[in-house]
Design a protein that fits this description.
The chain has about 170 residues and is mainly α. It has helices spanning about 30-70, 85-120, 120-165. The protein starts with about 30 loop residues before the first helix and ends with a helix.
Length: about 170
């Protein structure tokens, strides 16, 4: 800093050893407190998600093989025989899609807990890498959903217009 005995119009000088906000980052005690509070919830939701996915897979398999065995072998019900395997083909990709956010959330909580106990910056980095992956995944899913909704809206408008034109 410029001292008072020198030029009062001199530009201020940086102190030696000043903190660089890009490299010298510090996690405050309040931030640690909040991270400690969220870590168990992230792990709990992750574990609950894995349990839910497991139950869904088991119920999907029961439904797939059980439904086919419950339908009579008459020709009136022949189309329903493929309902179980058809549901399997639809349901499995949906479960696969739900697996990734659950995995990212669980890993975020796991590495966050590890960081809080070991103070290892690599754990914190891995935790936030999984957090970024979680929100990137949700963002991509949202973009896909919005695109599908736009196509449905466009298709609905075309259908309505075609209905009016054909009258």
């Amino acid at each position: 800093m410029a001292d008072m005995s020198g030029n009062p119009y001199e530009s201020p000088q940086a102190e030696i050893g000043a903190v660089n906000p890009l490299t010298d980052r510090v996690i405050t005690e309040n931030a640690i407190y909040y991270l400690r509070g969220v870590s168990p919830w992230l792990r709990f939701i992750g574990i609950a998600g894995f349990v839910g996915l497991g139950i869904s897979v088991v119920s999907m398999l029961i439904f797939t093989f059980g439904l086919s065995s419950m339908i009579p072998d008459s020709s009136d019900f022949a189309a329903f025989k493929f309902m179980g395997p058809g549901m399997f083909i639809v349901y499995l990709p949906i479960l696969a899609i739900f697996f990734f956010p659950v995995l990212y959330m669980f890993r975020f909580g796991k590495y966050l807990k590890s960081y809080l106990y070991t103070n290892d910056n690599n754990d914190l980095e891995t935790a936030f890498k999984n957090n970024k992956s979680l929100w990137t995944f949700f963002g991509v899913i949202l973009i896909i959903w919005l695109a599908i909704m736009a196509l449905v809206l466009f298709g609905s408008i075309i259908t309505v217009i075609a209905g009016f034109v054909s009258r």
